[in-house]
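Data deposition worksheet. Section B asks for the primary sequence of the deposited chain exactly as it was used as input, without tags or linkers unless they were present during the calculation. Section C holds the resulting structure in token form. Section D is free text for depositor observations; keep each observation to a single sentence. Incomplete worksheets are returned to the depositor.
Section A, Depositor: J.P.
Section B:
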Amino acid sequence: MARRVRPEELTEHELRRLLLDKRLVSRKDRLERFRQTGRALNLAPNLPTETLEDLQTQPGSLPEEQPVAAPMPRSARRRWADRILFAVEVLAILGLAGILFNGMGLLRTLNQEVAAAWQMTTPEPTPLVTAVVLPSGHVSPEISEVNQQNWGEIPAHLQDIARSYENLPIPTAGPEAVINIQIPAIKVDSRVFQGDNWEQLRKGVGQHLGTPNPGQPGNLVMAGHNDIYDQVFKDLDRLKPGDTILLFTITHQYVYIVTGTQIVEPTQVEVMAPTNNSTVTLISCYPYMVDNKRIVVKATLQNP
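Section C:
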């Protein structure tokens, strides 16, 4: 009969192995009960022998296995909800990307508009006002002994506008503004003033406000009287194509060549329209001592 070995007779290694065997047996029994009651699943095989040997050198290092709850199956409703949430997230990201892209486009457009607004361009001469009737109109000396403007030739509904033009301030002439006009064929030699209202034309020839200076592209319009105030433009009807018109500034002289003459109604203001090339338009009342129409002489810059 084998003698029963007492615990104090065992070595430390044997006691540790005995305790480990008891813990493994207890663990297996507990897991078996959990599996039978449905509280745990057999997810991992039993530890190999070499693992047990390793654990013998580290007492207390073998953790007790905790019961693993069986995962609940996902319902179809939950799966559809997850898909919808995923689609919403994708749409939100796409929407945010679209907003950022659009914002960048707006910022680029704004920068271009600001740059265009700050860009310095060479100002082009444009008429300050739209004339309602051609300048130099006056009552014939045969009708009135007093020199006066002929308001009767201006349409009634435009007279208030025409009167307001009379009070426009006269700008100071720059160094490139015309100061003198000479027309050798009809012996004209006169000073030129800025503006062609009644007061300015009393002094001599007037330049319509906003028209370009000599030598510049555009239509330089000048007017003068024909039978009052020195009759500076009395003989405009004698000019022929090829005659010269000399315009002087402080520093330059410009030569224009007459291209044609026409007789128009006082309201035909289109003869003052801007042109692409450098031209001069001379305007005066017509005929002499009648003054119910206008004579218009056109000339172009020689060798611009």
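Section D:
Residues 76-118 form the longest helix (43 residues).
The CA atoms of residues 109 and 115 lie 10 Å apart.
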